[in-house]
Amino acid sequence: MLNPRTYERGWLRFDLVAGIVLAAILVPQGMAYAELAGLPPVTGLYTTIACLVAYAIFGPSRVLVLGPDSSVSPLILASITPLVVVGDPGSAIVLAGMLAVLVGLIEIGLGVAKLGFVADLLSSEVRVGYMNGLAVTIIVGQLPKLFGFSTDADGFVDELTAFWNGLDQTNRTTLITGLAVLLVLLVLPRITTRIPAVLVAIVGVTVVSALLGLADEGVKTVGTLPQGFPTPSLPWTSASDAVALMVGAVGITMVSLTDTIATASSFAARRGDEVDANAEMIGVGASNVVAGFFQGFAVSVSSSRTAVADQSGARTQLTGLVGAGLVALLLLVFNGLLADLPQTALAAVVIVAALSLADLPALARFARLRRSSLVLSLVASAGVIFLGVLQGIVVAIVLAILLFFRRNWWPHGTVLAEVPELGGWHAVSVHPEGRQVDGIVVFRWEAPLFFANAGQFRDQVRALVRDSSPAYVVLQCEAVTDIDVTAAEVLKDLDEELNAKGVHLAFVELRDRLADLIVRYDLDATLQAEHFYASVEEAVAALASERDGGPAGAGS
Predict the structure, then answer these.
(1) Please, is 48 exposed, middle or buried when counting C-beta atoms within 10 Å of its C-beta (0-12, 13-18, 19+)?
(2) What are 209-239's pLDDT values in tens digits?
(3) 239 lies in the same domain as 91
(4) What is the reported pLDDT for 84?
(5) Minimal CA–CA distance to 137: which of 394, 386, 385, 387?
(6) CATH number of domain containing 480
(7) In-domain check, residue 556
(8) Are 235 and 293 in contact (CB under 8 A)?
(9) Predicted confidence (pLDDT) at residue 426 exceeds the cutoff of 50
(10) What is the DSSP string of 236-276?
């Protein structure tokens, strides 16, 4: 949040310079991502101005830069396309504005309710899979524009087929122009990062287009932008449309907030600042609402634009205001400046942005570390590619939830053995050479104990007793953060069942709160306090002595 009362004069030069540099990439990216959302390019500039001003007022971060985003725009297109009125291009703008307001209200509500943790619901593998799938669909969707023709296909397979069948319509001048821009965008950053590649590419291709008259060669250009800035208005069509947009709004919220918190945390760590996830939700949500009222669409934090602002010396959100002011100046005074900008150049900008979304090294890391994570990520990608972007985000969210339940519903339990060389007790499956004590099995349960996994816990303990015939089963409870009522009943019945066989339970590293719950559940009569120990070493020593000294008591 920009506060004039605490602003230091020495920051002004840095913020002005950073704002000018930032404006150079705000314009082409804003226009490109608007087209990716199925909207007129100028709406990307309206969105950019509105969200930057709003975030400067409501946002907590000093350097985050908001704006149209390559990961959000395809979701906007998928959400509004079924509802757009044929023959009324303005309906798409209104629907996108409605969607932005809905996203903003959801984000503000989550922030006010202090539910910032929802940003963590998309696991790393699911998020990587979603982004990889998104990159593939974006690139395929932009290929016709890069080659100079258009298709009416819908869906990845149909779009790929239509592109292949339409290759004979390729405009060579358009393709050469687009590939030249693509080459600059990909190669220049490898040579220097001091000059934004997108600035060089867009300015260069616009000048070349004007000098050579590429429009006369059949190269489609952006044309003169509408002059001025729209007056605020409530974007609204009907309640049924609002309901239909809710799925997309939730999906955009998940993607946007995940990016926002990750980017905010990264840049805050560099500056020694703290991130307030709830305040970020409110700031981003307010920016979306304001953008929706000014013929804009849903936005997110941009890591690339934030990096540009940071590297250019930005100190506060005045950087964003300077950038917004220069974009507004373009619309008010120089609206014909980009009239000769080829559409294929915007396609190249989008394709490069899509490439930045993909993370193939992460797939290699998943394959090396955990094959199930690789499969999960590939399933998320397939959901986006073959079911659609909107359906893909639903698949990604469902997978994230199922992954959470899977890891807690069927958690890993393991027998431990003492490994003197490493110190302490470790999994026998990893250290089969570890020492175990006759008549005592040390078992670690690695999840909260609740209704969904209590049966798994009981079955695993029964199997241990059946296979090892111990006198004692020592439960290492470091990872057990909760015991619910159902699990308590299972624990009581299991203990009585084992006692009847001469086997007794002992507990190690049981949290104080759980010890209190055992009393509250009236389990203390069965699970006796003398068999609660602070460490595995203490438990094994005491139980070995008890075993050698005579039979255990009737209780556990």
Answers:
(1) buried
(2) 999 999 999 999 999 999 999 999 999 999 9
(3) yes
(4) 92
(5) 385
(6) 3.30.750.24
(7) no
(8) yes
(9) yes
(10) ---HHHHHHHHHHHHHHHHHHHHHHHHHHHHHHHHHT----
User: Residues for the chain: how many in total?
Assistant: 556
d(CA 153, CA 531): 69
Cβ 509 vs Cβ 473: under 8 Å: no
Distances (CA, A) of 493 to 408, 445, 488, 498: 22, 18, 9, 9
Give yes or no: residues 317 and 255 share one domain: yes
Residue 200, phi-psi category: left (phi > 0), alpha (psi -120 to 50), beta (remainder): alpha
Instruction: DSSP letter for 385, please.
Output: I
Q: Do both 322 and 417 map to the same domain? A: no
Residues 397 and 417 in one domain: no
Same domain for 384 and 422?
no
Same domain assignment for residues 377 and 421: no
Average pLDDT over all residues of the chain: 90
pLDDT tens by residue, 104-113: 999 999 999 9
Residue 550 has pLDDT above 70, yes or no: no
Q: Per the structure block, which two tokens stand in for 334? A: 């120089």
Residues 393 and 445 in one domain: no
**Considering only CA atoms, which of 395, 397, 533, 438 is closest in space to residue 476?**
533
Percent of the chain with pLDDT over 70: 97
Q: What digits encode the pLDDT tens for the residues 8-43?
A: 888 999 999 999 989 988 999 999 999 999 999 999
* Residue 78 Cα distances to 72, 73, 245, 251, angstroms: 10, 9, 10, 11
Nearest to 256 by CA among 292, 280, 223: 280
Mean pLDDT lowest for which of 177-191, 301-315, 492-506? 301-315
What is the value of pTM for the model shown?
0.77
Which residues make beta-bridge pairs with 443?
415, 475
DSSP string, 153-208: --SHHHHHHHHHHTGGG--HHHHHHHHHHHHHHHHHHHH-SSS-HHHHHHHHHHHH
User: Are 157 and 54 in a shared domain?
Assistant: yes
Residue 79's Cβ-side half-sphere holds a number of Cα atoms within 13 Å equal to 33
Answer whether residue 353 is part of any domain. yes
The answer to whether the CB of 308 falls within 8 A of the CB of 196 is yes
pLDDT value for 121: 67
Structure tokens at 176: 């050469």
Report long-range pairs for 485-490 (Cβ below 8 Å, ≥24 apart): 485/451, 485/521, 486/450, 486/451, 486/454, 487/449, 487/450, 487/451, 487/453, 487/454, 487/457, 488/517, 488/518, 488/521, 488/523, 490/454, 490/455, 490/457, 490/458
Report if residue 107 sits inside a domain.
Answer: yes
C-beta neighbour count of 303 within 10 angstroms: 19
Q: End-to-end CA distance of the chain, in Å? A: 59
Alpha helices, DSSP H only, in 294-317? 303-311
How far is C-alpha 344 from the chain's CA centre? Answer: 29
